[in-house]
Amino acid sequence: MIAIGGAIGVGLFMGAGANIAKAGPSIILMYALAGVVIFFIMRALGELLLYRPVSGSFAEYAREFLGPFFGFATGWTYWLMWVVTGMAELTAAAIYIHFWFPQIPQWVSALVFLVVLFGVNLISVKIFGEVEFWFSMIKVTAIIGMIVIGLGVLTLGFSDAGETASASNLWAHDGIFPNGIGSSLMTLQGVMFAYLAVELVGVTAGESENPEKTLPKAINTLPWRIIVFYVGALSVILAVVKWTEFSAGNSPFVHAFETMGIPLAAGIVNFVVLTAALSSCNSGMYSTGRMLRDLAANSEAPKAFGRLNSRKTPALAITVSAVLMGIGVVLNYVVPEKAFGYVTSVATAAGIWTWMMILISHIRYRRAVDAGRLPASSFPAPGGALLSWVAVAFLALVTCLIAYDKDARVCLYVAAVWAVGLAVGWQVLKRRDVPVLHISPSGD
Known about the structure:
Distance between the termini: 28 Å
Number of strands: 0
Structural class: mainly alpha
Number of helices: 19
Largest sheet: none
Helix content: over 70%
């Protein structure tokens, strides 16, 4: 359920509105294309996980196959990604609250949600897992329900949208690429943000009861989740309501049900997208705590981050991450209308680095297996290293598109500053010549 929840977040429920406005119906193809590449990445990660399941997997594999600096950089960058993503989710949740309570300031809602989710993560991993299970269940059930209702509108013609709903809406209004292929490709940055968190199953590997069984199952069902939850849901929504009616800053799902005029439906959908945002933020706090703990285990962060409390959670690591997520509350106070766009672009850049490290680590691992230096994994990726190279090329393309977009390229400036900070931090660590510590998943 954590894997399913990771594949459904505000990137779909909210970010898709801006992407539809830019790309029109071709946004469906962009989500499908990106989904194929994400599957390549996840199968590469799956092969590594079954070779050696560890908590903090991305940093561990980068450390093993690329060198200590890359483990250090990947751990801290993935931590940054989730801190920033947490800010985006808090922002989205606060915007959704405006649907019912427009008088509540955006920053107040963001602060309340931050405090509640911090408490959930601090109590125990069992509580986190239970909350995430139900968050994911709500999202899955709701999206299937939305698809069924949308298909009913298309076939039976009921609701206020019944007369205009038609599959022809997918191509009738200036074609599938109404603004040109270039505009469609420029949405890939936002599309890739929607897929951030699918790799979260790698972070949970060290705390999974039976990773050899559960991880392959979670990864192999990813294509079906993408087909149903992204391609299927967007196809139905854009067939029911023509693409020209969607805009940035609004959930296309909420808008579609408002257009249908079904009583209470828009409010129910708004509740669902609210739980999606809180679910992702909840996962972010879990992930940041474990990544800081992995860094501490390798003497790449203060030792205190590696300690567990009596409930076996890395309390200090979670607390520091949650406090920094509070910057999102400040952004919602200072620039509420731009907060979401700012933080999603930075999160995407950090996510691309993480995926790159997974892919290059996989390529190095396959090279070592072929040379007989390491044992083969029980879950080999189809296509081997070749498809990992294809995914690397795709991520390089997305990075170039980000650099071309004047609004999105600010994240590359942030990335440059972050890279300098990592380089300086690494030099400080090397001069200290601190011995590497190793902490088992149980904290021993």
